[in-house]
Structure formats: structure tokens, C-alpha cells
Specification:
Layout lengths: L2 H27 L16 E5 L4 H6 L1 H10 L4 E6 L4 H5 L6 E4 L10 H11 L3 E4 L5 H9 L4 E6 L12 E4 L6 H9 L28 H4 L4 E5 L13 H11 L4 E4 L6 H8 L8 E3 L6 H9 L3 E5 L2 H8 L4 E5 L4 H4 L6 E5 L21 H4 L3 H14 L5
């Protein structure tokens, strides 16, 4: 089931189902679903966090997970997500259990079993990290947790009567700060010092690919040329990537990454080079753990606003992050080693406000970030970073 179909089903079937169960929830809330106003440590044992899509969002939610572990150290945290996000959740050691949601159309028959597992858990607090999804609200409600905490926006007002506690999702705040604001419903303590969880993965040996670039004395730079189907307009033009790579390949080996679905798009860039020596196309050739290893040993990563950018942040890797249709204050993490380039055109950040882009694919916001700007950022990191594998 592709993303557009999921969104359409959510906006229609999901909304209708939420409207239908609303009277029953209001009635049951007066009986055994009455929310608990005394949310102290002694009463909170089983916590569930649900984030079904968005690898980057899952990584950003690790600040919330660490916050909850500090405030409720004896609690058990279960993370609900889709099958495709299982590998990244496995690397987050603060998660105690992972529960996979049957999000494929042919897997919906498993939904009763999934709900039964939720009921057996006797959930004390359920955090719904999805912002717009009605199906996510539906699952949160059907968990029968007394304390159902989620976001509300003007476009989804019905959620107010289905959650026990609501928090306004502020598009001017960083995603991870919004997530922590959900946790502050339980404990009003503020702690801005909490960092993203480090990704703990089993160290592996690269056996299926040419690994000369890792053993070489010359450091390598990863170029992630992709963006997820949420918005392909976040891609930086391939011609721009080509110009930057041509300029830096004397000083660095070049690694192109991507999933199996992204192999064809990566190949288009790879074949643009007359001389591709020192350029390694690894798209679709790495397991997830191998991918993390390659990321961790890189000198820096050049990427748009997509999942690999957040992986680089979690691995504490230097990055040059390119933003156009999304706001860096919302998703980025600018530091001495994480540089952000943002083309603040008048229609940006459109991704926060609409399902389809007003440019119709002609992403002027990304095109305005010139290769020279990226080269200057790479050179700045090259001067300031001591490279040590």
C-alpha cells in the first residue's frame, strides 16, 4: 500500500471510524476509562509509544524515551511501529519491547490479535506521536488505556474527545521538543540537556561489497541523494551533486548510499561521471547494520532533510544538511559539526501545511542552494574537524 493511498484511507475511513466511536468513548470515560490525574511513579509501569511512519521522527522521539526513563526508571516502554522501522528501533537500547503494527492491507486480519496484545499489557499511559493520523488515534483509543496522550491541531479537532490528555503540536518548535512536551504531561520537569539516543548496533564486517574506501588512508564522504516518498521535492538536483563531487573527489573517496528502491535514481548520478574511480555506489547493497557502520566511519555526510540525516545526528557525525520545503528549526540540529543550508523562499515550509507541494515538483527552494554553498560548508568542516576512525 503506497503512502498516498494510506493517507486517503486515513482521511476518509479513519475519520469516519473516529466519529462513530466517539459517543462510546465519551460514555466509557465516565466509567472505567476515566483518566488518572495522579500520574506518579508508583502508578506508571507500562508505557506505550506509537510512531508508525518516519524513521527520522522515531530517532527524534528518543529524547522523549530517555526523558521517560529518567522520570520513571522502573517503567517498561513498548514502542509500536511498522515493520520497515523495526531495524532502527532495535538499535535504541532504551526501548524495552517492540510491537509491530499490521499496516499492510493484506495484514489487516491480524488487527484483532494486535489489539488483544494491547489489552493484555494493561497500559498505564499511551503516547500517540502521530500528528494527523485518525487511524493512529483509533488504535490509541481502542487500547483502553486510561491515559491516552496525543497531539491536536486545528485540522483534527475530533481527537480532543478521544484522548484523555492533549498537547498542541507547535510547528515552530523542534520535533523532539514537541515530543518531550507529551512526556511533561506526566512530569512537568524540563530538561533541555537530554540528547538523542546513540544508535547501538552489532558491529559487522563488510563482506558483500568492495570496501577499499574504508581501508583507504583517504577519508570518504557520504552523499545521500534521496528523499522518502513523503516528498520527493526534498531532493537536491543530481547535477548539483555531480558538481560538488567533481570538486571534492581529489581529497575524498565518495560513497553513494540508498535503499534497493533507490538504486535506479542513484545509478543515474553514478553514470554521470566519465571517471568514477574513487566513487562507490552502495545503494541497495548494504544491510541496515552495514549501512550504520559505513555511516559511522564516514568523514561527513551531505544529505537532504530525510531519514539518513537523523541517523547521522544520532551517530554524532558531521553533516551538511539541505533544507528547502521543511524548516530547519523544526527538523534540523545545527551545531559546530552539523551545518545547515536553508533556502527560505516565500512558499517554504510548505511541507508543514499541505499534502502536495504548491510548486508541483519544481522545487525552487532546493535549486536555490547552489553547489558553491555546499562546497563552502564541506571546506569549513574539513578545516575544523579532526578525522579519526
Amino acid at each position: 500500500m503506497n503512502l498516498n493511498l494510506k493517507i486517503k484511507l486515513d482521511r476518509t475511513c479513519g475519520l469516519v471510524l473516529c466519529i462513530l466511536i466517539r459517543p462510546f468513548v465519551c460514555f466509557l470515560s465516565k466509567l472505567f476509562l476515566r483518566r488518572d490525574h495522579l500520574l506518579d511513579q508508583d502508578k506508571i509501569h507500562n508505557i506505550v509509544i506509537a510512531k508508525y511512519v518516519g524513521l527520522g521522527s522515531i530517532i527524534q522521539s528518543t529524547r522523549l524515551i530517555k526523558y521517560l526513563k529518567i522520570e520513571f526508571p522502573d517503567s517498561n516502554i513498548t514502542y509500536i511501529t511498522s515493520k520497515e522501522n523495526y531495524p532502527i528501533c532495535k538499535t535504541i537500547s532504551e526501548i524495552d519491547n517492540i510491537l509491530l503494527f499490521p499496516d499492510k492491507l493484506f495484514d489487516l486480519y491480524k488487527l484483532p490479535v494486535f489489539l488483544f496484545k494491547l489489552w493484555k499489557m494493561k497500559i498505564d499511559v499511551f503516547f500517540d506521536l502521530e500528528i494527523y493520523s485518525y487511524f493512529s488515534t483509533l488504535i490509541t483509543t481502542l487500547s483502553f488505556s486510561k491515559n491516552r496522550i496525543g497531539f491536536v491541531r486545528h485540522s483534527a479537532k475530533i481527537k480532543r474527545s478521544l484522548y484523555s490528555h492533549i498537547v498542541f503540536f507547535n510547528t515552530r518548535n523542534h520535533y523532539s521538543d514537541n515530543y518531550i512536551s507529551l512526556g511533561q504531561v506526566l512530569s512537568n520537569k524540563e530538561d533541555s540537556s537530554i540528547e538523542l539516543a546513540y544508535l547501538n548496533y552489532p558491529k559487522v564486517n563488510l563482506v558483500a561489497i568492495d570496501k577499499d574506501f574504508i581501508n583507504s588512508a583517504k577519508p570518504y564522504v557520504i552523499f545521500n541523494v534521496h528523499a522518502s516518498e513523503l516528498a520527493f521535492e526534498r531532493r537536491w538536483p543530481l547535477q548539483y551533486f555531480w558538481e560538488v563531487i567533481i570538486s571534492v573527489k581529489e581529497d575524498f573517496n565518495i560513497v553513494l548510499t540508498g535503499t534497493k528502491k533507490e538504486q535506479e535514481y542513484t545509478r543515474q548520478l553514478f553514470e554521470m561521471f566519465d571517471d568514477n574511480s574513487g566513487i562507490y555506489n552502495l545503494a541497495g547493497k548494504l544491510s541496515f547494520n552495514e549501512y550504520l557502520l559505513v555511516m559511522e566511519k564516514a568523514f561527513l555526510i551531505v544529505t537532504g532533510d530525510t531519514g539518513p540525516m537523523h541517523i547521522a545526528y544520532a551517530l554524532r557525525k558531521p553533516t551538511v544538511s539541505l533544507f528547502g520545503m521543511s524548516c530547519p528549526e523544526h527538523f534540523g540540529m545545527e551545531t559546530e559539526i552539523n551545518l545547515i543550508l536553508y533556502s527560505n523562499v516565500k512558499c517554504s515550509p510548505c511541507i508543514h501545511e499541505m499534502d502536495s507541494t504548491p510548486c508541483g515538483g519544481d522545487n525552487i527552494c532546493m535549486q536555490k542552494i547552489t553547489p558553491d554553498l555546499v562546497l563552502n560548508s564541506i571546506n569549513k568542516l574539513k578545516r575544523n574537524i579532526n578525522y579519526d576512525r
